[in-house]
Amino acid sequence: MIQNVYLHARVKWILLSVCLLVPMLSEAQQDAQFTQYMYNGLFFNPAFAGKESGHAITALHRSQWLSYSTATGGGGAPTTQLITVSSSFDKANLGVGLTVVNDNIGAINNQEVNVALAYHLRMGRGRLSVGASGGFFSSTIDYGNLEGVNPDPLVGSGGRENQINNSVSLGLMYDRTNFYAGASVRHFNEPSFDFGEGFENRLENHHYVLVGYRINTFALFSVEPSILLKSISLNNFSYDVSVIGTYNKKLSVGLAYRGEESASILMGYSLMKDNSLRLGYAFDLVVGGLEAKSPTTHEFMLTYNLPQAKKELERVIQRTPRFRF
Predict the structure, then answer these.
(1) What is the CA radius of gyration of the chain?
(2) What is the reported pTM?
(3) Is 191 strand, coil or helix?
(4) Three-class SS state of 215
(5) Which residue blocks in the chain are alpha helix, DSSP H?
(6) Which whole-number Å values give the CA distances from 320 to 229, 315, 317, 323, 324, in the listed order?
């Protein structure tokens, strides 16, 4: 009997037997993961809403384990789409954000829509932000794409079932121009899903710590190391680490590593005179667990930044016969 409704993209696509499912899924991350995490802080932490002045829209597509197929010959390679919108309202010290996620993992389709609100408080030379987000988490299971060892009327029936529950996330972030550090917990309320006997699961707390630092060097060149620490209910831990070099705020190239899973190359290029449009790409090469995965993953990202409109009052020179002011 299949026992878990969430199968993470980082775990072998297994719905062939209870013996394989239980040990491998007990510690599986349920959230989507991204190689270009350093540009998508809002997904992990609501306090990132309005981190940068103005408005920003990001769209990302991730095709994981390209050409992967299950043991039965079917598809099942994870694919993820992410859209984030972030706006800053400096006069009110507020930031608002929107996150939309579509995550396909074999027979499972998870979707999220969250609205975030962050309050930014000046603290010395930096800024402390407190954020919260709320929305819904939808999970759909396609029984036609499941295969079980033991007979079950649902498995292979071709039917689909969907459930929706609320999800709440909380976060803190300290930003000091070239340095930022944030901590957050997603799915704080741990929503539960019940698809019937043997098909029930709780969405666990996901804890994140995201730290980044920009080092400005010579000749318009900067280096940005960052690290993302991840944990599920504080029972297990994993990490992503990266170093990205950027020239003249336009061309960037970097390397990243996901603990015991993959090594990555990241590239980006900014367009338009104000660098407001940015294209990003990441290529992952799996270095661990190849027996359960295909070796390559591709991730594409597009970001557009719209500066905050400001009214600038020009000083008008008034002339009179006696005065000029």
Answers:
(1) 23
(2) 0.83
(3) coil
(4) strand
(5) 18-25, 41-44
(6) 67, 16, 10, 5, 6
The residues, any chain, with a CB within 8 Å of residue 301's CB and separated by 6 or more, are: 36, 39, 40, 58, 59, 60, 61, 268, 278, 279, 280, 281, 282
Strand positions, DSSP E, 195-276: 200-202, 206-213, 215-216, 221-232, 236-247, 251-258, 262-271
272 DSSP β-pair partners: none
Tokens of 102: 């579509």
Q: Is the dihedral of CA 71, 72, 75, 79 positive or negative?
A: negative
**Residue 120's pLDDT band (cuts 50, 70, 90):** very high
Q: Which residue segment(s) compose the domain that 73 sits in?
A: 18-306
Question: What pLDDT does 178 receive?
Answer: 92
Domain count, the chain: 1
> Regarding beta strands 236-247 and 277-286, do their DSSP bridges make them parallel or antiparallel, or are they unpaired?
unpaired
Task: Provide the pLDDT confidence category of residue 13 given band limits of 50, 70 and 90.
Answer: very low
The SS3 of residue 18 is helix
CATH of the domain at 166: 2.40.160.60
